[in-house]
Structures are given as structure tokens and as C-alpha cells.
Amino acid sequence: VQLQASGGGLVQTGDSLKLSCVSSGRTFKSYAMAWFRQAPGKERTFVAAIDWDEGATFYADSVKGRFVISGDRATNSINLQMNRLTPEDAARYYCAAEVLHVGVKESQWDWNYWGRGTQVTVSS
To answer: Which residues, including other chains, have CB under 8 Å from residue 39's CB and lie 6 or more apart?
Structure first.
């Protein structure tokens, strides 16, 4: 299983950016998918997730109201629309999938498949 994130880049404060994550390789059934981010020297933190069964979305407080997660369960793909970006949003963004049906967790250790990430840089 491979998850490939794309869409990162260099933007200015206040700009928008849309990330995408697609899966390939062995067919799998995910129960949820998520975005995490990691800035240099910091831990990987939860950004947003979508629970396919509940049709629910979840967001970190720091991005609530600015970021929107969407996706397609059939293809195990998700997007992250990021608006009003600030330098604090700069990080490497990773997509993840959960296949054990444990629900959406904010700990990276509860997610089973990961992509390599895409870099987002926000200039002030």
C-alpha cells in the first residue's frame, strides 16, 4: 500500500493551498483517513480526519474554520483545502489511513498506512 501526497508548495501568508492524497498498490479498506503535519524539530501532530462510516470530519483547533478535509472512500483518497495560511502552518504534511476500525485518533500511532508527505512553506 502506498499513499502519495501532493500539492504542497511555497505560498504567502493568507494564501490558500489544496493538498491531495491518493493510494495505490494493494487494495485495502480504510475506515478513516487523516492529515498530520510535522515541522522541523517538532512532533507529528494531527490536523484533520474523516471517518467514512460516520461521515464525520474532525479538525485540530488550530485549523478549525480554515481547513476542510474531503475525500472518496472508494478510492481511499483525501484532500485538504487550506485557507488563510500562516507561517505556523508551515510543515511537512502527511496523509494516513486507518484500517483496523478503531476510530479517529489524534495520535499518529493509531494510523496504519502513511505517505511520504508534501512540504508546505508559508512566507510572512
So the answer is: 90, 91, 92
Bridge partners of residue 82, in order along the sequence:
17, 67
Q: Give the pLDDT of residue 8.
A: 98
Cell of 32: 478513516
In the chain, the largest separation of any two C-alpha atoms, in whole Å, equals 42
Going by C-alpha positions, the residue among 71, 80, 76, 101 that lies closest to residue 3 is: 76
89: Cβ contacts below 8 Å, ≥ 6 apart = 37, 63, 82, 120, 122
Strand partners for 70: 79
- How far from chain centre, in Å, is Cα 54? 18
| pLDDT average per 10 residues of sequence, the chain (124 residues) | 96 98 93 97 97 96 98 96 98 97 94 96 96
